[in-house]
Amino acid sequence: MKPPSFEYRRAASVDEALELLAAGDGDAKALAGGQSLVALMNLRLARPVTLVDIAPIAELRGVSSNGSLRIGALTTFTELEQDPTVAQAAPLLAEALPYIGHPAIRNRGTAGGSVAHADPAAELPVVLSALDATVTVRSRTGERTIPAREFFRGFLMTAAGHDELVTAITLPPATDGAAFEEFARRPGDFALVSVACAVSGGEATVALGGVSGAPVVVGPTAVDSEDAIDAFAASAAESIAPPSDVHGSREYRQHLTRELVARAVRRATAARRS
Amino acid sequence: MASTLRILNVNGREHQVNVEDRKLLLDTLREDLGLTGAHAGCEHGVCGACTVLLNGRPVRSCLMFTPQAEGHEVSTVESIANGDELTSLQQAFVDNLGLQCGYCTSAMVLTAHAYLQENPKPTREEVRDAISGNLCRCTGYTGIVESILAAAEAGYGEDARAGGE
Amino acid sequence: MTRPDKYVGKGIPMVTAGRFTRGMGRYVNDLPLVNVKHVAFARSTEAHARITSLDVSAAAAHPGCIAVYTADDLFPLLVNPYWGGWEGTARAEGSPLARNKVRWVGEPVAAILANSRYEAEDIAELVDVSYEPLPAVTDPEKALAPDSAVLYDEWDSNTYFHDEFECGDLAGAFERADGVVKRRFTAARHTGTPLETRGIVAEYDSGLESLTIQCNFQDVYLARAIIAEVLDMPPSQVRVASPDSGGGFGVKLPVYPEELAVACLSLKERGPIKWIQDRQEDLIGTSQHRDLIIEAEAPYATDGKMLGLKVRIVSDGGAYGVPARGNTVEGMMAAEDLVAGGHDIKDYAYVLDVAMTNKPPTCVYRGVAQPVTVFALDSLMDAIAEETGVDRGEVRRRNLIKQDQFPYETATKGYVMEPGSYEEALNKALELVGFDEWPEYQAKMRAEGRLFGLGITCGAEAAARGATWYGKRGLPISGQEGCQIKIDHTGRVYAALGTTTQGQGLETSLGQLIADELGVDIADVRVTMGDTDRTPYGAGTWASRCATLGGSAALRASEELREKVLKVAAARLEANPDDLELADGHVSVKGAPSTALTLREVARIAYFEASDLPRDIEPTLEAVHHFDPPSATFSNSTHVIILEVDPGTGAITFHRWVCVHDCGTVLNPLIVNGQLQGAMAQGLGGTILEHSVYDENGQPLATTFMDYLVPTSLDVPEMELHHFETPSPFTGLGVKGVGESGTVFAPGAIATGVADALGVHVDRLELSPSAVYDLLMRRGNGDAGSVSA
Q1: Which residue of chain B comes nearest to C715, CA vs CA?
Q2: C207 contact partners, CB below 8 Å, separation of at least 6
Q3: C403-426, pLDDT tens digit by residue?
Q4: CA C693 – CA C699 distance, rounded (Å)
Q5: In chain C, whose CA is at the least distance from the CA of A250?
Q6: Please, which pLDDT band fits residue C77 given cuts at 50, 70 and 90?
Q7: Which candidate in A50, A105, A110, A117 is best for mutational testing of the B interface (most B CBs within 10 A)?
């Protein structure tokens, strides 16, 4: 499958990118690593009229930490994997990174790209939702910061406008405990169900991926006993209406959710205790 | 659609190509530069047969438009050579039945070449993990794993790092 | 005469492998071509519909459009439209591009020619087709019902093929039985997905009136026969050559509509025409397999012996008779191979129906039906063990054919089976996993909440079919294989066979055989194949036939050539040929090694000094032989696996996988092991991961590699491989087929293992985590369980 034609423009700065996106009037898309977008274009499922290549924009790269962890939109997943600051400041994110595709995908895929693409079975949106992270977007008229839990609206849909560019993602300080669980058909595949769990002050919050159009956040709920953990896992499974598709039935995904939430909460609380 | 002149750095040399912006890097390498070692297996980023190295790291060339490769160093399997001889990595593939039809082999060799430099003495499990993004339909993977372990045993990773290969 | 085994039996690396590690393979998409035109197809989006209008004007008006072709344009070229299938199958008219109706999503409706594939795809999108949808036929049993929509207006049903058979005293077997096992087995539809998709380059030279096809067909002679017949050209004017091939596994045996269309187009165009299939086209249009229903009734005695077998088989055949084999092979092989699985079954009956449905056609894929029949047979063995209390290993022993029963004619009289190591392989495999200690071990694991299971498949695998299977049923498929060997004037050896290569290492394994026979260094032997202009008539690569049949032909040709070399040398040395030996590139007098000629010197005489030869010896050193086996050869195998089911996720973990295998004489253990491991990976994939899913409207749901899941290095365990060698009395050197064995025995081993782990019957060969979850629910009466506590 070969992609359809498009106009290729390269942006040297954020301002230039924003001009091009605005001029596209809804038919222009930013191109970062292209690991999601180019695949869709090869399948002719996405047909942007203009692609704005933002890869040259140095301002969008880099990770900094001062309490919160700020990740530039063009930071690749490999860069995140290899940055000791990330492992230190965001253990939940660090745990999720190896699940993202394969090294070749992570070498090109970017944090901003994953967020802008908003696949509910992708790992980063789920982690950001669990952590109550924020997404910074900019347009020609200004910048705004959107909580991740409001940013992901549905399947491949975000709160960003067509003329807005994701510039950074900010994670709050790490919680007491965290754990990431995922079950996929094969290692590196999109999740059938993924669970990002953050534990704080005896309460667990989980974000569920692969079960709905956007990550589903459940909690915070007290998880101070085995029974409480099981009850929490059961209620998380009951609160969702996942799809049935070629990879699994609805009932199976609910069962899987219950199993993975229980595993994640147990590990997150054990990590906290130790 | 109009073609645009692009300057690509491939296998250590600069090349001029005149291609549509939408032409995948994979197709430009194969058709315009005659480097047919990278193969199309799916064209949506899953099988890895199109693997090339971008600044030394494996990437899927079917998920890049040609203009995106400008300003980077692209290496294909054709650059893995010891003059006209096989490198010890390639010889290991030959000696350990690391291939049958050969269609995934360019990608496996490149992936192993990059990986062994990062991790010169991997365990069997680590090797399996390292190639998990490259599909093979013929071998069932055992021969490929044996080949990479044999190359590691022979010190391929350290030699490649030092530029000896 | 002595034949030193310098090479045969050794694990020599593949002589052809080096260039692939350098990216120097030459697959069809790599061939350098001048002025090539690219083809893309406009394809049906409906599974079953009448075409009410087809407007190509917008496509034709595109500035990059060189040509657009529809069925009407091709019709005059299709002198003899080809419909695949042997005698007894329903017939319809074949058309590479849809005429009037479409019958599967993806059926080609129009062919577009442009200067690039990119542009051709742009133009294909401009083809405007209107459809009047018809009810989609997706269930093969419903397809056979009288009220079903019918795919072919000229037929009164969707029955493509029907067959019934009975032999022995089945009624008596049921009467004598102490019990009857009744099960309904099904398997999930899936396909071969070689990493290299299909592709063809066709060029017609109107001056020479010759058509050259380069295509990764697995049988170049069959392709030539079909194409020549369709276009009404003498076969000698059609050349079909296969360049390097990135895998075939059977799915590159048909002559598909696209390839036929491209061949037709090349007659209307100047210069090479190229079509390279993309992965979506592969997943919606290449043949699909294993979609079988086997309803079995097995009467048994309390000692565990199965007394007979009665089956009803339904095969989902897909939408059209695929050239040339048609769509019956899988169904027919299921019927034949249930009684050719190594068990002693003499009282047998089957009813077989192959139904047309709105899906791609069913042809042959590695193992063909046998993965499903082995699953059924071993599940029946376990069911009998369960009902009688006889040990699972013992039930199998009691049912396997005994050594003194060989040669064993199968109940359908389809085959005569040669001896193997059936019981030895079973015993060895069970011993290796510690079968006697298994119940205790399993109980211990269960007490820890871990669901461990042990799976067993054991039996025969048919390979290397001869003329009786296809040729005698009216198909232009040669069951034989030919090998021509030449010693050139420098003394080097060149061999050509009518097989093709997809990486099985035939050039190496046959090179070993030939090098040993002719006493030369393997580096001086070059083996080539896969070109109708350059090789003796053969039948390509399928049914694990190449080393067996090709090897047998190569052996005979080598023997003849060896004799000739000795006679030529004898004439020069003034010796008796019986006193000469050929080794290390020399012919020498036994016991007097200084009296010798090099092979080069012998060749010189044969090529340039023929005047010195006795009257009865012709010049040059060439020999050609063709070999046809009696019916097929039979390898045997036992797989025993220990697996664990995670009740929380439905995932299966493989803890041990033992395979004891007998493919007769092993030419090259490295290559044999590679075949077993690769085949097993495909068997595993087809059981747990790969599924060509269709919805009730006939829409394919697994159209990319994101949904059609090929096993990765982390999904395939390593097998412990052990070998017996029971040479076949039918083939040269006693070689038997090995290529499909892993695929045949892996699925049933997984299924019986899961059944053992969960204590439930596994009736469907589809064990995705979700399907395992359903089994867990059945087991736990509504509670699948968990590991997280």
Answers
A1: B132
A2: none
A3: 999 999 999 988 899 999 999 999
A4: 8
A5: C770
A6: confident
A7: A105
Dihedral class, residue C591 (left if φ above 0, else alpha if ψ from -120 to 50, else beta): left
CB contact under 8 A, C714 and A186: yes
Q: Which domain holds residue A189?
A: 177-273
pLDDT tens profile C681-700:
999 999 999 999 999 999 99
Domain boundaries defined on chain C: 17-25+480-627, 31-134+195-247+252-285, 368-408+417-463+631-787
Q: Can you name the residues that pair with C457 across neighbouring β-strands? A: C639
Residue with tokens 């309904």: C184
Give every strand in the sheet of C67-69, ordered side by side: C67-69, C108-114, C37-43, C273-276, C199-205, C210-215, C238-241
A153: domain CATH number is: 3.30.465.10
Scanning B104-143 for CB atoms below 8 A from A yields 111, 129-130, 132-133
Chain C partners (3+ C-beta pairs within 8 A)? A, B
CB contact under 8 A, C21 and B129: no
Q: Are strands C179-187 and C416-417 parallel, antiparallel or unpaired?
A: unpaired
C31-134+195-247+252-285 sits in which CATH class? Answer: alpha beta
Domain termination residue (choose one: A171, A206, A223): A171
Spans of all domains in chain B: 4-79, 88-161
Q: Which residues of chain B have pLDDT under 50?
A: 165
Q: Which of C294, C382, C397 is nearest to C338 (CA)?
A: C294
Q: What is the CATH number for A239?
A: 3.30.390.50
**Closest-CA residue to C703 (of C287, C279, C124):** C279
Instruction: Determine if the peptide bond prior to A220 is cis (ω within 30°).
Output: yes
Q: Do B40 and C278 touch (CB under 8 A)?
A: yes
Residue type, A35: Q
Smallest CA-to-CA distance from C401 within C336, C345, C462 is with C345
The architecture of the domain spanning C17-25+480-627 is: 2-Layer Sandwich (3.30)
Residues 18-37 of chain B whose Cβ lies under 8 A from any Cβ of chain C: 20, 22-23, 30, 34-37
Burial environment of residue A22 by CB neighbours within 10 A (0 to 12, 13 to 18, 19 or more): middle
Residues 6 or more apart from B158 whose CB is under 8 A from it?
B120
pLDDT tens-place string over residues C184-194: 999 999 999 99
* Two structure tokens written together for C352: 């077989």
State which CATH number among 1.10.10.10, 1.10.150.120, 3.50.30.50, 3.40.50.720 fits the domain covering B88-161. 1.10.150.120
CA B72/CA B75 separation, integer angstroms: 10
3-state SS class at A198: strand
DSSP, res C550: I
- Looking at residues C10-36, what average pLDDT do you find? 96
Q: Is the peptide bond before C407 cis (omega within 30 degrees of 0)?
A: yes
CATH code given to domain B4-79: 3.10.20.30
Interface touch A108/B54, C-beta < 8 Å: yes
Equal fold, C17-25+480-627 vs C368-408+417-463+631-787: yes
- Residue C770 has its nearest CB partner, among A2, A4, A247, at A247
Q: What is the pTM of this model?
A: 0.96
Instruction: State the Cα–Cα distance between residues C69 and C111, nearest whole angstrom.
Output: 5
The predicted complex's ipTM stands at: 0.98
Residues of B in contact with C682 (CB under 8 A): 137
| Residue bearing tokens 């000698």 | C236
Looking at domain C368-408+417-463+631-787, which of 3.30.365.10, 3.20.20.70, 3.40.50.1000, 3.40.1390.20 is its CATH number?
A: 3.30.365.10
The CA-atom distances, in angstroms, between A53 and each of A2, A17, A50, A136, B132 are: 19, 8, 10, 19, 29
